[in-house]
Design a protein that fits this description.
Shape: globular
Radius of gyration: 21 Å
Structural class: mainly alpha
Number of helices: 4
Strand content: under 5%
Distance between the termini: 75 Å
Helix content: 55-70%
Number of domains: 2
Length: 93
């Protein structure tokens, strides 16, 4: 007779002990959250040119977000536009 797997357990794999499903779900949720954050930003590969340092762009983006403290999707999008504009204008000087 097979043992029913409860919500807190996952089936045993390779004869090892059962894992906590909540930990497994939490790690997947955290990973999905991180991926969604990364997708929300403009791709630096299309903004940062090959001879420019990507870390400088990320530093500028973090500084703008910290100072402007956007709330809501529209404000976040506007801050990203501001960062891209500043980055591109900085090439002119």
């Amino acid at each position: 007779m097979k043992k029913q797997v409860t919500e807190t357990e996952t089936p045993r794999e390779n004869g090892g002990p059962p894992e906590q499903a909540s930990k497994h779900i939490a790690s997947r949720t955290e990973e999905a959250y991180i991926n969604s954050l990364l997708e929300r930003h403009f791709d630096p590969g299309t903004i940062v040119l090959p001879w420019e340092y990507r870390g400088d762009y990320e530093h500028l983006r973090v500084e703008c977000v910290m100072q402007l403290k956007p709330q809501g999707k529209l404000e976040k999008m506007l801050v990203e536009r501001i960062v891209v504009g500043i980055w591109r204008l900085s090439r002119c000087y």
